[in-house]
Specification:
The structure is a homotetramer. Chain A is an alpha+beta fold and about 230 residues long. Helix content of chain A is about 45%, strand content about 15%. The radius of gyration of chain A is 21 Å and the shape is flat. About 0% of the residues of chain A have low confidence. Chains in contact: A-B, A-C, A-D, B-C, B-D, C-D.
Chain lengths: ~230, ~230, ~230, ~230
């Protein structure tokens, strides 16, 4: 899972400026209010629109099953993904590492994870390798025989890496983060799959760097998108 | 590819009523205009909003690679899909039939397809079967050893069937149809993959049955979403 | 403020069906779970998408300043409004009644309202009448002299009544209600203007009638849109 | 009507980069294709998503009736507007100038405009002045008597100036331009009101400056949003 910030047009000042358009003349939140206080007020009382005048573009390299979860986020998100119809896919696959918990326990909707035994880790290593390499061999074989890319790719697993551009604003990003990360102090529980959380955490870091006051207000107000 | 219309609240009269709210009192398009003429005018001059007060809900059963293309349609679409995290997936896979053209010719962005030789069809039959069954065998094997569903599913191919609810309005449906079907008389070219076109054509039929005047206007005005 | 439910395709069963597509096979929330429990779980843990496969269409008659606030809601809402360019507007205006509080106290962003003195109510009665009738007289006078409707209407006040179709799904409706009503037990505060709250409360009633279990879950979980 | 470009993160190169993520490896449109050719191909064949990884933020000062038309554009647009609930509005109003055609002729949906007689222009001058000043006098009078801003503003006309931040991407901007400007060579007719067209034309200029190749492709392909 690799997330690269391609570009950002997103600062705390953008939020302040947009909010001031609405409230200029507002005594207690007017030009005297400090940016940190204004942003915290907007977050706490869920005035979301001032956070939308911002833009982040990321390049994400992640397996298809992660891309699929990501692209369910529609409002305020734009995507362009590598196409298996237009290009031959490279044989790069995601394999759970030794630290990846393999066993889910507890009840549905709120699973907990446990590491799993050495034997289980061994099975995963072996079966992923066997399954991925078998599929890719068939993919390449069919291409070699002149089968169209859009047909041959059907045998490729959802664990194969894809790449996509994802553009969002600070509000849609916070909505994504609130659902795809878990953190102490979150007002609402979320149970993201570990792999998409790794994507989200890298975006969270870029967000915090670009908009420190907004990020602080988000973290301090229960990690709910305004 | 199987599309079931779960429910629809969508008639030509819905469009007429919504348009009349805007234009009531409008002499030449007012209460005297026949519905067919009003709808054709709205379509031709691209007044899209009156078509939005309608709703179709479909149950789609299709391979993951089709669902992935479908869910890129964000505006005016809602989805709920079977989850490989929550349930054990069944081993039902899509395999190109003997009539499915296998060879792409021509230039990128405007591929044409040719049937392919008997040898190529044989390769596809053999390799799909081999690849799919190998992957599924590993999936089941890992589940049997207690590996979490969300991990084991990573080896499953994008050709496995999934199921999802998709809800849209007539405008977002026409936008989808304009990009995912090809038809004589279309003002803009499109090059959908055959499998998603099969989904789209079943939706097109349900659309034509529910809203015959709207469908006629769509077909007669270059199949451009208004 | 008058809200008429034009049509609805929205039941608690729609939510259950959509959720079951995702979770079928899920032991603890599967086919044995009662609808009320499933819906409450979806609301509490903010699984919003199952609520989107529903549709409400309302005809709203309200002043322009209310329509302006309403139409700021973009995601999951569709609108068609009476057009002052295409039709001659009728002289129907909103005037605050004797029970409408006229005086705001307290700090910005969290105003409280007080009734106001009889003298203040008298001023409002007199000035609204004077201002509205003067504006409408000029509007009609300009139309009589052949001035285009789209020009003459510029002098009309935002208190004049307009009419519009508004279509939404249960999720976008709950988001609207959470911002445009205030209620005991709401997890987040909101300070809607009284007139749009009157629109929202009529929609809330239609919502509760159509989807009683969903409404109950909304009310019991802090009136936050999932 | 005054439009100020607050900031832009939008270049032709952004489009090229996003498209290349999809098509890298694509022979005929790959790394050898010149940006102008690639962008023209995307526009012509209506591949819209690569244009979305861009962002423009404008400050618009325009009358309420223009803002109302503008804010009907929902997909890909964000707004923050001056609030008549939170601040006292200034008495700045829009009045049609001597060059503003006053008389509409022809049929509904495709009106033509004629200048109007000197007498008609005189009536407009007089009646706008009279109506605007009367309304504003009452607004101020009610404020002076302690009536809440959110009540007193109801008498203000839709011709009063408001200010708002509007953020969009290149695709949503082109959609707006295609509906709110008229131009030779447009594939679909549009009949925008003159005042919103003045807003749109200023945005069109900023768009052309920031993304000259994209703008050229838009202009050369019938001014249809991809």
């Amino acid at each position: 899972m690799k997330v690269t910030l391609v570009k950002a047009s997103a600062t705390d000042e953008d939020v302040v400026q947009a909010a001031r358009v609405s409230t200029q003349g507002l005594e207690s939140l007017g030009s005297d209010t400090k940016p940190a206080g204004l942003i915290n007020y907007l977050m706490r009382d869920r005035h979301g629109s001032p956070f939308e005048h911002t833009s982040f573009t990321f390049l994400v390299e992640a397996p298809i099953f992660v891309a699929r979860e990501h692209m369910r986020h529609r409002a305020g998100w734009s995507y362009n993904e590598e196409s298996g119809r237009y290009k031959e896919l490279e044989g790069v696959f995601y394999k759970p590492g030794p630290e990846r918990p393999l066993v889910q326990v507890g009840k549905a909707g709120a699973y907990q994870f446990e590491s799993g035994t050495p034997a289980q880790h061994h099975v995963v290593d072996r079966d992923f390798y066997s399954s991925y390499s078998w599929a890719f061999q068939h993919y390449r074989g069919m291409l070699d025989r002149g089968i169209a890319r859009e047909v041959a790719r059907m045998v490729l697993p959802v664990g194969i890496y894809t790449a996509y551009y994802a553009t969002c604003n600070a509000r849609s990003l916070m909505h994504f983060l609130s659902l795809r990360t878990k953190a102490d102090g979150a007002k609402f529980p979320s149970f993201p799959q570990e792999e998409i959380e790794k994507v989200a955490l890298q975006m969270e870091e870029a967000f915090g760097n670009a908009m420190p006051l907004t990020y602080l207000a988000y973290a301090n107000n229960g990690r709910v998108a305004p």
